[in-house]
Specification:
Elements: H1 6-9, H2 22-34, E1 40-44, H3 51-63, H4 83-90, E2 96-100, H5 107-114, E3 127-132, H6 139-150, E4 156-162, H7 170-173, E5 177-180, H8 186-200, E6 203-204, H9 206-216, H10 220-233, E7 237-238, H11 240-247, H12 252-263, H13 267-278, H14 284-303, H15 315-322, H16 327-343, H17 350-363, H18 391-395, H19 397-404, H20 427-431, H21 433-436, H22 443-452, H23 486-489, H24 493-503, H25 511-517, H26 534-537, H27 553-559, H28 567-574, E8 576-581, E9 585-590, H29 600-612, E10 618-623, H30 633-654, H31 656-665
Parallel strand pairs: 1-4, 1-5, 2-3, 3-4, 6-7, 9-10
Antiparallel strand pairs: 8-9
Helix pairs in contact: 3-4, 5-6, 8-9, 9-10, 9-11, 12-13, 12-14, 13-17, 14-15, 14-16, 14-17, 16-17, 19-30, 28-29
Length: 681
């Protein structure tokens, strides 16, 4: 007996042997068991997914005589041993008329076929017409078939199969029960091939079956045919190397090696892998396609590890590799890969195009961001704040913080005031040098700026009111003999006066009082002024060195804007809280969601900024969950922005003009469009 190919030898003969297509099998089995049989069925799907097989199984179910001869003997489990079942399996059943519509497209062929519809079946219970590739029929053939397809005789069933249902007339589709068969996933193909090769006693590598499953592209018949070819190519065995050589496909391990080099940020290793690939003469465009496909699977592995397909038998390797990339890097590499694939046709050399695409991935990787030791899977999205910061608030969060504390907006750091050199200075003046420069403003001068501040929804004027203008510099007194201790305080007076002006701005009318109060005597200390605002009681400058003790969380929040950080370094510091400070080492705790930015270069910049503020510290940043109830500088800025936005919305709602518009025109205030204005100077 001649050899029978695997695709025909292992063709399913019952519904229970059918691989996949559970949704179709369930519907047909239930219809057969309940006796609810339609007169026309349409099976659609790509090649090799079981359309003809399902039609033949259904024909056996309709004509099996194991349970009797009448219509009530129709079963969903054909016996396979009765005369009708054996005849259908062997292709000699008279009442199963298989028609190849691709070779019989003329209307004359269709009329000849329909001339015999009226006659009763010769051998079986039903006369079954199986028309394969029905979309190839001509328009006249469809028109000739319509009436019979709509109202056939009771003993006739039509089974239609096609790979292109879009070409069928709507009038035909409306007369049939349509079942769409799905493509076979590689996992299902590998599972079935394992059973077949085990039964055939053929040695195989599982990785070789994954190559066959991918090459089959959803078709089980293609997979069986390729397996036949692989057995012949490998002399009775199915081995990975033989299958890869037979298919001419790229070994998947080379793609994983390229991703390993990207994870290590190793350009030399990356080029070495490309050189190793070039020795095999691959399709470099196909290499890039495979790389982009694996990047997509890595992104899925980071977000939903359970959703990673095992299409190449490499699921565990992908999960381990996904933990070595940040989500941002995966998205960046994917986008660069797609763009490189589009540009490859314009490149003079495909290999050079691949190398440039890979090097571009490394070149555009954010600098200063270290390789993550381990990215926790799955990734979790951060909880967004209730009101996002607008552009204006992002540009100057320092102003909001200063306004919240009742202080003036901070200015660039100024050099610290020199200490008094004369030992004859009074103890009180030596103990409190910043207080010596703080003027004692009149009560009306302290409250006047708040009353003239414009509402939060109105823009600040470019020219500040006179009450908000900075105080002019006070000239140095020319008669120091008026006060006995003036000589000891001369070095402090020029430096302290601007600091006092920055802490509590005053109108020009207070210039004389400021000049008089800049020279302090032991008999009248400034600390006795009861009406001074809290900002005036603070140290003269936020940038002055702190000698009062270690840095705590409140100091960290107040000093953050004066550090002058920017870019990724600022973002890193803005998500930290103070863990502890012993005067030598400052320990910060970083939000785990920002751990990808934790790099030594940022630590050095923060240390330099602290040292410039008179706080030389060795910085230690630990990644851990932040304590509940403790604000980071970023959280504080967002809170202030939300409060300012709520204040602006409330002020707009209370505005008489807005209320009049609402009452007259039925207008509504779009709260999301409200943008609080910040001072311009």
């Amino acid at each position: 007996m001649s050899y029978q190919v695997l695709a025909r030898k292992w063709r399913p003969r019952t519904f229970h042997e059918l691989v996949g297509q559970d949704h179709v099998r369930r519907a047909l089995v239930n219809a057969l068991d309940q006796g609810r049989l339609h007169h026309a069925y349409l099976f659609t799907g790509t090649r090799g997914v079981g359309k003809t097989t399902l039609a033949r199984i259904l024909a056996k179910c309709l004509n099996c005589t194991a349970k009797g001869e009448g219509d009530e003997a129709v079963t969903s489990t054909p016996c396979g041993t009765c005369e009708a079942c054996r005849a259908i399996d062997e292709g000699r059943f008279v009442d199963l008329i298989e028609v190849d519509a691709a070779s019989r497209t003329k209307v004359e062929d269709t009329r000849e076929l329909l001339d015999n519809v009226q006659y009763a079946p010769t051998q079986g219970r039903y006369k079954v017409y199986l028309i394969d590739e029905v979309h190839m029929l001509s328009t006249h053939s469809f028109n000739a078939l319509l009436k019979t397809l709509e109202e056939p005789p009771p003993h006739v069933k039509f089974l239609l199969a096609t790979t292109d249902p879009q070409k069928l007339p709507v009038t035909v589709l409306s007369r049939c029960l349509q079942f769409t068969l799905k493509n076979m996933p590689p996992e299902r193909v590998v599972e079935h091939l394992t059973q077949v090769l085990t039964a055939e006693r053929v040695a195989f590598d599982e990785s070789a079956l994954w190559l066959l499953g991918k090459a089959a592209d959803g078709s089980m018949r293609d997979a069986m045919s390729l397996t036949d070819q692989a057995i012949a190519f490998g002399q009775g065995e199915v081995r990975h190397g033989d299958v890869a050589a037979m298919l001419g496909t790229l070994d998947h391990r080379h793609v994983l090696a390229l991703l390993e080099a990207l994870a290590e940020v190793d350009a030399a290793q990356l080029l070495a892998e490309v050189a190793s690939l070039a020795e095999q003469g691959p399709d470099f465009a196909g290499v890039l396609d495979d790389l982009v496909g694996v990047l997509h699977r890595l992104a899925v592995a980071q977000m939903v590890p359970a959703g990673v397909s095992n299409a190449h038998g490499d699921r565990e390797a992908l999960l381990a590799l996904a933990a070595r990339f940040t989500a941002e890097d995966i998205q960046l590499y994917y986008q660069i890969g797609l763009q490189g694939r589009a540009d490859m046709g314009q490149a003079p050399d495909p290999r050079a195009a691949l190398e440039m695409t890979l090097l571009r991935m490394l070149a555009f990787r954010p600098q200063g961001v270290p390789r993550p030791a381990q990215t926790p899977l799955p990734l979790r999205a951060e909880v967004a704040p209730s009101q996002p910061m607008n552009a204006g608030n992002e540009a100057s969060p320092a102003t909001d913080i200063a306004r919240d504390n009742g202080e003036a907006a901070p200015t660039p750091p100024s050099p610290p005031a020199p200490a008094a050199r004369e030992p004859e200075a009074s103890p009180q003046v030596a103990a409190e040098p910043p207080r010596a420069a703080v003027p004692a403003p009149r009560p009306e001068a302290a409250t006047e700026p708040a009353s003239q501040e414009p509402p939060p929804w109105e823009p600040y004027p470019e020219t500040m009111p006179e009450a908000l203008a900075p105080e002019p510099e006070v000239p140095k007194p020319e008669t120091p003999e008026a006060v006995p201790t003036a000589e000891a305080l001369k070095p402090e007076t020029p430096e302290a006066t601007p600091a006092a002006e920055m802490a509590a701005p005053e109108p020009p009318v207070a210039a004389e009082a400021s000049a008089e109060s800049s020279v302090v005597t032991p008999a009248s200390p400034v600390a006795e002024a009861p009406d001074a605002p809290p900002a005036a009681m603070a140290p003269a400058s936020p940038q002055a060195p702190s000698t009062s003790g270690p840095l705590d969380q409140a100091d960290w929040l107040n000093r953050f804007e004066s550090l002058g950080l920017g870019g990724l370094t600022r973002n890193l510091a803005a998500h930290c809280v103070v863990e502890g400070d012993d005067g030598q080492t400052l320990r910060l705790r970083l939000d785990p969601s920002q751990s990808a930015m934790n790099a030594e270069v940022h630590h050095q910049r923060i240390q330099a900024a602290l040292a410039a503020q008179g706080l030389p510290r060795r910085l230690v940043v630990e990644v851990a969950e932040l304590p509940t109830g403790v604000e980071t500088p970023q959280a504080r800025a967002e809170r202030l922005a939300a409060e300012r936005h709520a204040e602006a919305v409330a002020a707009l709602k209370a505005d008489p003009r807005v209320q009049q518009l609402q009452e007259t025109f039925g207008a509504r205030l779009q709260e999301s469009s409200v943008t609080p204005q910040t001072p311009t100077s």
